[in-house]
Design goal:
Length: 538
Amino acid sequence: MGSGRQTFQHRSLSVKLWPPSHSTRLMLVERMTKNLTTPSIFSRKCGLLSNDEAEEDAKKMEELAFAAADQHYKKEPDGDGSSAVQIYAKESSRLMLEVIKRGPKVNGELADKATDLRGTVFDISGGRRAFIEAEEAKELLRPLGEAGNSYAKICFSNRSFGLDAANVAAPILSTIKDQLTDVDLSDFIAGRPESEALDVMNIFSSVLEGCHLRYLNLSNNALGEKGVRAFGALLKSQNSLQELYLMNDGISGEAARAVSELIPSTEKLKVLHFHNNMTGDEGAFAISEIVKRSCSLEDFRCSSTRVGADGGLALAEALKRCAHLKKLDLRDNMFGVEAGVALSKAISQFTDLTEFYLSYLSLEDEGTEALANALKHSAPSLEVLEMAGNDITAKGTASLAACIASKQFLTKLNLAENELKDEGAILIANALGEGHGQLNEVDMSTNAIRRAGGRHLAQVVVKKPGFKLLNINGNFISDEGIDEVKEIFKGSLDMLGPLDENDPEGEDDEEEEDEDEEENAEHEKELESKLKDLKINQ
C-alpha cells in the first residue's frame, strides 16, 4: 500500500526498433499460448483451450498483429518503430482476449454456450490502470445493480478504489452477494494511503461476508498482516473455496499465520498460490498448516517466498498429504540439500503430477539425486520439469538422466544455469534419445557445455516431431561448434534459440585455458567415444 495519491497510466513498454527479432516473435507466441491455456475468470465460463489449439491460435494472432504493426511502420514518417511495437502489443492483446472469450472449439466449431458470457462475468479490469472515483463507479457498476442480472463472477482488478468508490460499490454488491461464486479483487487499492486502503478492504470484506465463493483472488495488494486481517470477515465465512490467490501481497510470517487462522476450511481447496511474498521460514510453517488441511490440492505455488531449509522441511512434510497434486511450483527459495532430500520422500504421493518446478533451490548434486531417484518411480505423466540454477554437476546428472528417460510424456525440460558440462549434456541427450515424442522445449543454457555436448543435444532434439526450441546459449561452444549446430537445424532454424552469448574462450577448471584447437577436438572425440553408447539404468 502506497503512502501517496497518484494516477496510474499505462505501464511503460520496453520498446525496440521495428521489426522484432525472430526470437521475440516466438516468445510472444509462447506467452499467448500460455495465457490461452491458463485458467482465468473467462475460461471457467467459456472453457480452456487445449495446448494444440492455443498454439495454433497464438501463431495466427501473432501474424495478424505483426502485419498490422508492420503496415503502420511502413507509413510511419520518422521510421522510429516505437509506435509499431505498441500496435503489435495492443493488437496481440485484443486478439487474445477475443479468443479467450470465444473459448475452445469442438470438432472445429465453437463450443455451444448455455448462456451469454456477458450475463455471468462482470469485468472492469480492461483499459487504463487508474483510480476510480465515486461518479465513475456509479456508472461503471450500474449493470450489477440491474434487476434480474445473473452475474456470478466479478473482476475489479486494475482499478484503484478509494473510500468514496468503495461506498458506492458496497450496496450494489450486497444485492448480488448470494449469487457470486468468483471474486477477483487483485490490484484494486494501488496507490492509496494505508489507512484508506485498509478501510476499503474492510468495506469489501464486510459486504461480501457470507458469499459462497469457489474462487478468490486478493493478489497484488501489498496486504501484509493488516490487510489480511482487514479481509477477516470475508475469509472467515468461506467454507467452499476451491481457488485462493495471494501473490505479491507482502505476506510475511505474521500475515501467513493470519491467513491460516482466518480460513476455517480448506478441504475443497484445489489451487493455492503464494508466489512472490516475504514469507520466510516462519510463514512457511503457517502455510504448511494450510497445506496439511488441503487434501484436495491440485496446484500449489510457493515460489519466490524466501523460504529456507527449515521452512522447506515443513512444506515437504505437509505435501505428503497432497495425493492429488498436478502442479507443484517451489522455485526461487533457499531450500538447500536437506529440504530437497525431505521433499523427495513426499514424491511417491504425486502420481498425478504433470508440472514440477524446482529451479533455484540450491539442491546441489545430493538433493538432485534424491529427487530424481524418487521421481523416476512416480508421476508417470510428467510433462514439465524445471531444475535450473541448482549447482548440478555431471556427477549428479546420471540419476537425473535416468529419471528423464522414464518420463515419456515430457514436453519441456529446463536445466539451465547448472554445471553439467559436456559429460552431463550428453547424458541428458541420451536420456531424451528414445521416445519423448511430445518434447518441444529444452533449455540447457549456461552449463559450460562445449562443442560435443551442444552437437549431441542438437542431433537428438531436432528429430522430435513437434519440437520448438533448443536453448544452448551462454555456453563454451566454439564457432565451429555453432556452425555444426546450425547445420543440424538447417531448414528449421526457428527451433534453435539465440547463440550470441556463447564464449568459445570460456574457462573450464578441468581443462587448461590455453589448449589449442587440435587438443580441443581430440578431447571432444574422446568424450563422445566414451558417452555415445552409454546406457541409462531405468
